Amino acid sequence: MNAVNAGNAGLGEGLRVGLAAVSFPTIGHFLEDGFLDPAIRSLLDGVKVAGPAVTVRIAENDAYAMNRSLLELYPGAVLVVDMSGDHRHAPVGSVTAAAATAQGAAAVVVDGVATDILELRATGLPVFARGTSCLTTKRVRSAGSAVNVPVQCGGVQVNPGDWVLGDDNGVIVLSAEAAADVLGLALDSDAAEPALLARIAAGEPLESALAI
Asked: Domain range spanning residue 35?
């Protein structure tokens, strides 16, 4: 286990449990930054993941970089893939998903496309992408590729160890500090929502039920 992985292994279990419990859209009530481009969507239905990031930047269709990043995965990690602006070549397919699953990964997020959609869905591994393609990365190496470095994904900088939160609504990336700061507010808001919905359903005038 490298230094990044060792640090994540020591993260507070309370934060992990809290992030798994909170409604991710509720976080959007309190923060403006960290939300990936909504074009990056889950390719599976009914998913919810929260885990620390392992990152890879892929340049010039470099498939070897993806393989190196798979070796850095650990249970609960989310692999975040920066395609250097390439939205045509898929770095994620059936073999990648199988390897990520074998490492215990929670999900893969790619700022680009994926392939082997039926096989991906069969693995059950949540994959977030801009779509699918038959065009894939190649067995070439690029000096521009790198693993476990700060990357750009969906317009957001992602650092190794940042928390990646993803569900059917989209993907959020937060530092551990930002996640801890917003978690209590979001959980309190979630706890209050059922009573508000009940008041609306009971016919309370919206002028009193809503903040206006």
From this structure: 3-209
Residue 165 has pLDDT above 50, yes or no: yes
- How far is the C-alpha of 68 from the C-alpha of 17, rounded, in Å? 29
pLDDT(134) > 90: yes
Total number of domains constituting the chain: 1
Looking up tokens 């286990």 gives: 1
Find the helix or strand (DSSP H, E) in which 110 lies: strand 107-110
Residue whose entry in the numeric block shows the structure tokens 């569900």? 167
pTM score: 0.90
For 72, the token pair is 């850095």
Tokens describing residue 36: 């990936």
Q: Report which residue type is found at 96.
A: T
Name the residue among 27, 26, 38 with its Cα closest to residue 153.
Answer: 38
* Percent of the chain whose pLDDT exceeds 70: 94
The CATH number that applies at residue 133 is 3.50.30.40
